[in-house]
């Protein structure tokens, strides 16, 4: 049985970080989370004038993972574990904040000074109670390290940011079984993917109008669709429509209490208070400078 669409919500435009605009399917008033996924932000597509591009200066995280996927432009990362690097188009960064990290996510000096287009995504993946305080970790993929998903459909291209799909295996070691895919579907294409029944599957359509689920529900750009139970996930595009780009997410829900405040996501209010205390005391470290 192919999965039907159980719910569709519209993304909301918000300002984030030092003031860059994002389109956010969740969390919103309508949808608090897509357990275990806590947040999905699409930044851009936008074109910055010189000296206009903004980022997210030094800030902490604890209790979850942040996953950044760039399509256009770049992002320069620095963190309290001593990592520093510039992620370019097609690059992936999977940061496990665990017990605590301080990092900055900024346009590179070159992109800031010259301006230019930017488009990318950040996904927050929750950690279960017994793994929230694991050691921080950092993984990154260059564009050529992102696995292609082989399908018989010539008119569909799948990139595996993490997890498994149709025999392809992503290079990122996810903490819990998680699949994160980017699909580009040409008009008239149909792709059907098997997923283990214990995983919740959802899709964020960021370009075009997709036909999703066993009844080919029309899901327009900027919408987030959740699939119900079943063995496979079907996605396609009307033959007369424009090409579609979408992100596909799959994971088993944690079904745990979620206490969140800004950059911290724990299970209880007490743990949140402790996170603030630990951050202020410098226990999440500092970004080395100079
Ligand atoms: Mn961050």
Task: Walk me through this protein's architecture.
With about 290 residues, this protein is mostly beta strands. It has one domain (about 5-250): Jelly Rolls (Sandwich), CATH 2.60.120. It is about 5% helix and about 50% strand. It has two helices and 26 strands. It has a seven-stranded antiparallel sheet, with no helix packed on it. β25 and β26 form a beta hairpin. It starts with a strand and ends in a 10-residue tail after the last helix. The mean pLDDT is about 95. Manganese (II) ion binds near residues 56, 59, 61, 66 and 105.
Give a quick rundown of the structure.
The protein has 290 residues and is mainly beta. It has helices spanning 109-114, 269-280, and strands at residues 5-10, 12-16, 20-26, 37-48, 56-61, 64-72, 75-79, 84-87, 92-96, 101-106, 116-126, 137-141, 147-149, 156-162, 164-165, 168-169, 178-185, 190-194, 200-207, 210-212, 217-219, 223-227, 232-236, 244-251, 259-261, 264-266.
């Amino acid at each position: 049985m192919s999965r039907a669409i159980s719910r569709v919500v519209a993304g909301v435009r918000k300002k984030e970080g030092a003031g860059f605009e994002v389109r956010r399917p969740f969390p919103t008033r309508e949808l608090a989370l897509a357990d275990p996924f806590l947040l999905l932000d699409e930044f851009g597509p936008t074109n910055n004038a010189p000296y206009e591009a903004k980022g997210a200066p030094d800030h902490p995280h604890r209790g979850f993972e942040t996953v950044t996927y760039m399509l256009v432009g770049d992002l320069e990362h620095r963190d309290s574990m001593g990592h520093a690097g510039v992620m370019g188009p097609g690059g992936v960064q999977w940061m496990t904040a665990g017990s605590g990290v301080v990092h900055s996510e900024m346009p590179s000096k070159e992109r800031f000074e010259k301006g230019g287009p930017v488009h990318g995504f950040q996904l927050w993946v929750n950690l279960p109670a017994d793994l929230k305080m694991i050691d921080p970790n950092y993984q990154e993929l260059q564009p050529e390290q992102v696995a292609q998903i082989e399908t018989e459909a010539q008119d569909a291209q799948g990139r595996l940011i993490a997890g498994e799909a149709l025999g392809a295996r992503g290079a990122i070691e996810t903490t819990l079984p998680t699949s994160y895919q980017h699909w580009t579907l040409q008009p008239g294409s149909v792709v059907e993917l098997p997923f283990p029944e214990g995983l919740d599957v959802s899709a964020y359509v960021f370009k075009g109008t997709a036909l999703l689920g066993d009844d080919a529900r029309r899901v327009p750009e900027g919408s987030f669709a959740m699939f119900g139970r079943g063995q496979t996930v079907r996605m396609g595009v009307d033959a007369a429509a424009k090409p579609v780009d979408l992100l596909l997410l799959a994971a088993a829900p944690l079904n745990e209490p979620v206490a969140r405040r800004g950059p911290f996501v724990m299970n209880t209010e007490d743990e949140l208070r402790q996170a603030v205390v630990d951050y202020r005391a410098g226990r999440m470290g500092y970004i080395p400078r100079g």
